[in-house]
């Protein structure tokens, strides 16, 4: 009999490794060790840039033929925050009142454990399935996402490695298992704007040029804009102001610079280029009117995309309903995920644990949900390779 891995035990193992991004701490090696024991060929991939630390990643595959069904996820986690506010140690993996606690239980070490446990059972039961199973496990999702999945995807492109479908194990359910499957994501553009004026005394405003005034006008105009009304697959695009500051620390001084940062989560009615053009036009127009110089920088962290529901998504929905008694809503809500990179090489969806405690103190998941998710992943494999 082949090795069968328990999802709860593996979740505990992973939680006990404090892999706070960008630190790996041995988490990727642990995953590789378990996959190797199941017969997977594991390729360790390390990437870095000049100003970034080395990030460890893994691509693993068993089988050489098509179709290639891929599971994708990340082992890095966000910081624990105020450790004293936790009821248990954030890296203890304690089970209490039917739940396992720890940073990364839902986002997304529990999901990875369920991937591997389901695959171990599937390989034990279906020794001669037709096709391949692969894993993309990375360590740079919670940070700048430069040296993780993005570069693994580039590597797979160069190797001409074909993936036929990918399931990303992000915690897609907000309240209960079976509630939601993510079939796409909104795009994200962040704008950093600084207006330069002329410093002066507040009692003599005519001798100065206050950049705060046009900045307020700019933010008001942009925030008041109706970017769109959404569509059948996406909610309306939305702008949120995240930072505002000036270079003055005195109450009676007109500042020489005023800065703001804002983010737009946009649907597929827009692109990075179209929004950049729209934003720049508003900023430059108002800055010129008030005789201020504008410095604008942009950062794109994802484009809007959608995976059209087809045979695989239908079978996944059927399996989820069979086990949870809920038909998952096909959604594009939420933040960005590594699916934004994987969609360039394969159709992909996200389905994982309940995520209402992710990134919070006392992050946890129900042990019963781990069992359900493992069973769902197993049944998906069984149906996909039927």
Overall description:
It is a single chain. The protein is of the alpha+beta class. The protein is built from nine helices and 19 strands. The chain has helices spanning 7-15, 27-37, 105-125, 149-158, 212-224, 272-289, 311-324, 339-342, 367-384, and strands spanning 41-47, 55-62, 68-74, 95-96, 99-101, 132-138, 165-168, 180-182, 184-185, 187-196, 200-201, 238-246, 253-254, 257-266, 293-302, 305-306, 329-331, 348-350, 364-366. The strands form six sheets. A six-stranded mixed β-sheet has the order 1-2-6-3-7-18, with helices on both faces. Strand 4 and strand 5 form a beta hairpin. Helix 3 crosses helix 9 (367-384) and helix 5 packs antiparallel against helix 6 (272-289). The longest helix is centred in the first third of the chain and has 21 residues, at 105-125. It is elongated. The two termini are 22 Å apart. The model has no long low-confidence stretch (mean pLDDT 96).
The number of distinct helices, counting runs of at least 4 residues, comes to 9
Mean pLDDT across the residues is: 96
Span of the ends, CA to CA: 22 Å
Query: Order of strands across the widest beta sheet?
Result: 1-2-6-3-7-18
Structural class: alpha+beta
Shape: elongated
Instruction: Give start-end ranges of low-pLDDT stretches.
Output: none
Radius of gyration: 24 Å
Helical residue percent band: 25-40%
Number of strands: 19
Order of helices and strands: HHEEEEEHEHEEEEEHEEEHEEHEHEEH
Strand content: 25-35%
Largest sheet: 6 strands, mixed
